[in-house]
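For this section, I looked closely at the sequence of one protein beside the tokens encoding its backbone, which the following lines show:
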Amino acid sequence: MTGARGWFLILATIWLCLLAVFHAFPQIDIAVSDMFFVQSACVPGELPGRVCGEFARSADFALQILRRVLFYLPVAFAIVLIVVLVRNLQQHGATYCAMRTRNCGIALTALIAGPYVLVNLILKSLSGRPRPYETDMFGGDKLFAAAGSFDGACYNNCSFISGEAAGAGWVACLIVLVPARYRPLVAPPLLLVTLISPVLRVSFGGHYLSDSLLGFLSAAVVYAGVTLYFEMTQTEKKRGPSTIL
């Protein structure tokens, strides 16, 4: 249980266990979202029994700006990695670093495979889970759907799981690219910054706690999976016969 294989199995198991907990106890999501929901009196003419109110923090201008900055943080890091990769590929002989190419390739592949393909293109399109502000208990008109149920009334860009949290989780995974001696200094502030985005999504009513937590962790699962794939293909190449030209 060491290396990429061990990390992948551990992280994937944790992800599945958390999903099972949130699915079995949906009241956790409801209670956390309710902490940020401010209920108010409905205007005359509203349907009897309708819940009115808002997630007040979503209207905070400073928090909106912060969210927008953090939204583009993965893109900024991706651009840096692409520049590093291109410059390294332009090197020859002793100045070329195969490990740098491998590390950049893993990171960029994990970004595409995780936050963009798995989360935004697949899960958010198929999960069917309405966002908190869309549900009737928080001022919306849709019924609540538990995490992982895939039977909600949302048809596109749904709540399960958070794409922004997945992007933030990918940035947190970049700690593996930092030299080991500097990780104790870099890891705490990096983790703190990357956790802001998932917290904001919950406080804005854009996602439930499970959406943000599982989204953040999904990036680590995919990153470990991609690393494992690179290691396996590299091992296969070493085992295979040399090509004679």
Remarks:
- The chain has a mean pLDDT of 93.
- Residues 29 and 153 are 17 Å apart (CA to CA).
- The beta strands are 37-39, 53-55.
